[in-house]
Design goal:
This protein is an all-alpha fold and 173 residues long. It contains 6 helices and no strands. It has a domain of 109 residues.
Length: 173
């Protein structure tokens, strides 16, 4: 599945993989209620936190570092790595994710294979990883939290969850 915002156009294969991963992330979260999205099971994150946390990474990589701006202020303090556990509002996190990924796509559409070995020039982080590694880190980060989200949904007793990776036939490789 090609990310819906980019259907019909070919992009760098890592970017296509990220868009496919995002579509699987959304498929995993289909039908989640706002109430269930805020439930914490033991020490596990809640689903709203997972959505905000993945949005936070996308904002850092493809909006802040790549484009020099931020879309949602204060997101890192709420759902950033190492921050205290939180249960942010489901609708707010879903809207933040949508907005951030839309803005991030503005940069992702420009990536070429020639850009992959080079990092961004970021003052607060002089030894930043190359764009190719950041794409892989972003993809793998999603899959980590996708598994967590599936586990949470199974424990909550949600029926008819995806049980296999979706349709890869349209992904550019």
């Amino acid at each position: 599945m090609v990310h819906p915002r980019c259907r019909g156009t070919e992009y760098q294969p890592y970017v296509s993989q990220l868009w496919f991963t995002r579509s699987e992330f959304l498929r995993c979260l289909e039908g989640v209620s706002a109430e269930d999205a805020l439930r914490r099971l033991g020490r596990m994150n809640c689903l709203s936190w997972i959505v905000g946390h993945t949005a936070n990474q996308e904002q850092r990589l493809w909006v802040k570092w790549a484009q020099g701006r931020e879309v949602i202020l204060g997101l890192n303090e709420l759902v950033g790595y190492g921050k205290p556990a939180s249960t942010p509002p489901w609708d707010d996190m879903c809207q933040a994710w949508q907005r951030i990924t839309q803005v991030g796509d503005d940069y992702l559409r420009t990536i070429t294979v020639e850009m992959l070995p080079f990092g961004f020039q970021v003052a607060e982080r002089p030894n930043i990883e190359p764009v190719g590694k950041l794409l892989l880190r972003n993809i793998y980060h999603y899959w980590f939290h996708l598994g967590e989200a599936h586990a949470i949904r199974q424990i909550l007793g949600h029926p008819d969850l995806p049980d296999f990776v979706g349709n890869l036939s349209q992904v550019q490789v």
